[in-house]
Amino acid sequence: MKKATVLLTLLAVAGLAFAQQKAEDVIKAQCEKAPVVAELWHGFRGGAPRAALENLAVEFNKMNAGKGCVRPISQGGYRDLSTKIKAAFAAGNLPAMAQAFENNIALYLEANALLPLDGKLEHLSDLNPFFVNAVKFDGKLYGLPFNKSVQILYFNRDLLSKHGVDVPKTLDDFIAAAKKISEAEGEPVYWFRPDTSTYAYWFFNMGGSYLHDGKVVVNSPEGVKALETLVQGVKDGWAKPITSGYINQNFGKGVYGFSTDSSAGYSYYLRAAKFDLGIATLPGTAAHPGYGLVQGTNLIVFKDVDTKQQAVAFQFLNFVSGPKAQALFAAATGYVPINLKAVDEPVLQDHLMENPDFQVVIDQANYAAFEPAIPEWEQIRFDILGQAITEAVLGKATPKEALDKAQKQVEDLLSGKIR
Questions:
Q1: Among the residues of 163-284, which ranges form H helices?
Q2: Stretch (H or E) spanning 40
Q3: CA–CA distance, 171 with 163 (Å, rounded to integer)
Q4: pLDDT tens string 115-129
Q5: Residues 320-365: pLDDT tens digits?
Q6: What span, in angstroms and rounded, lies between the C-alpha atoms of 417 and 401?
Q7: Pick from 55, 106, 170, 307: most CB atoms within 10 A?
Q8: Is the predicted pLDDT of residue 268 greater than 60, yes or no?
Q9: CA-wise closest residue to 202 among 411, 361, 393
């Protein structure tokens, strides 16, 4: 891998990181002159995703000059975004568009706040149906899949070569490789964040499902087994929980061998790695790669905004879902190209030629899984299940104790006993 070339491609493809402030200034000037301004609230704090979105907005506004303007506004992180949207419901100052997870969409639909997108999207037939179907509720489409990532396997090529270990293809091979290298190095080499995202990889690939006969179940036998695997990995010395910062921010604090993490982190991993970084589809079975958690959001359009703003919003959705825009966005950020024709665009072909590893992200998108699209999932994910995973990994409870406690909390939440 030509790391320097890859980084230049990631940063230059759409005038990225270095031009972030300039893009904001350009958008401000564009919108001051526009007869209609459609705000887009998002959860990108910075980096390549925010820069790529802003550059797409600049290009759209140039094309739409004199008609309407899109102004992306960061609301902090994703939880900050959903909190501010809930507050905007009460205040009556919703934006035209926003990013939203599937569970956010389910919540906003309870308030009858969203416009269906059926008949509004020019490129719908070209979009990945796996992602499109996830934003259909009662047969209607309420979101445009936008910044979608999938978990992939990151690994240290130098370390695997040193110990004569092949890139693992199955779960058993993965654990065996991590054990072998960890024993030789004297410290754990599989690094993970003790959260629902990491846990989801093990959970889904051990046959887990969060929904059973319409009921949310977080303490299933498969769930307990998945959490026990992580806990035992820590005890046995092949798994290392990262409790502060992202994994790539901890490079240099030990011997890194593997992680199962979002493809959206690819550019950050590349910048941080002082070793030959490789990526691969997730270890699964002999028959196929493992299933990785789908992360990232969709773009939604709110009902209670001016119809002229809605019109600009639909124009923007058609622009960003086109093959060229999707190719630019994917190459710049590591997100999955949602438009299936994006891979034929010259910019993505060039990116794949310079960085053939990116094909891994495209391939992994065929083996992915979603979390439940229910209104309460955000609270369950972070405050209940996430807390249980952390407690078990840090030895404050056994996996079964932690998940049984979480199950009771889930049932209390869904029944209205707690909020």
A1: 171-185, 196-205, 221-236, 266-272
A2: strand 37-42
A3: 19
A4: 999 999 999 999 999
A5: 999 999 999 999 988 999 999 999 999 999 999 998 999 999 999 9
A6: 21
A7: 55
A8: yes
A9: 393
Query: Do residues 14 and 328 make contact, with C-beta atoms less than 8 angstroms apart?
Result: yes
Predicted confidence band of residue 1 (pLDDT cuts 50, 70, 90): very low
pLDDT value for 9: 44
CA distances from 160 to 163, 168, 178, 318 (A): 5, 10, 10, 44
Q: What is the pLDDT of residue 398?
A: 98
- Summarised one tens digit per residue, pLDDT across range 29-73 is 999 999 999 999 999 998 889 999 999 999 999 999 999 999 999
| pLDDT at site 209 | 97
Q: For residues 213 and 264, is the Cβ–Cβ distance under 8 A?
A: no
Q: What angle do CA 309, 61, 86 make, to 5 degrees?
A: 40
- Look at residue 164 and give its three-state secondary structure: coil
Lookup: tokens for 313: 């919003």
| Rg from Cα positions in the chain | 22
Domains of the chain as residue ranges with CATH: 3-148+296-369 (3.40.190.10), 150-293+371-415 (3.40.190.10)
Q: Which two tokens stand for residue 42?
A: 């998002």
Interacting residues of 120 by C-beta distance below 8 A, sequence separation 6+: 314, 317, 318
Characterize 355-386 residue by residue with b for buried, 16 or more Cβ atoms within 10 angstroms of its Cβ, and e for exposed.
Answer: bebbebbbebbebbbbbbbbbbbbbbbeebbb
34 touches 68 (CB < 8 A): yes
Residue 130 has pLDDT above 50, yes or no: yes
Residue 127's region, left for phi above 0, alpha for psi from -120 to 50, else beta, is beta
pLDDT of residue 21: 54
CB-based contacts of 29, cutoff 8 Å, min separation 6: none
Residue 129's CB is within 10 A of a number of other CB atoms, namely 10
Strand 37-42 vs strand 190-192: parallel, antiparallel, or unpaired? Answer: unpaired
Instruction: Tell me the pTM.
Output: 0.89
Q: Which of 149, 150, 121, 147 is nearest to 53 (CA)?
A: 147
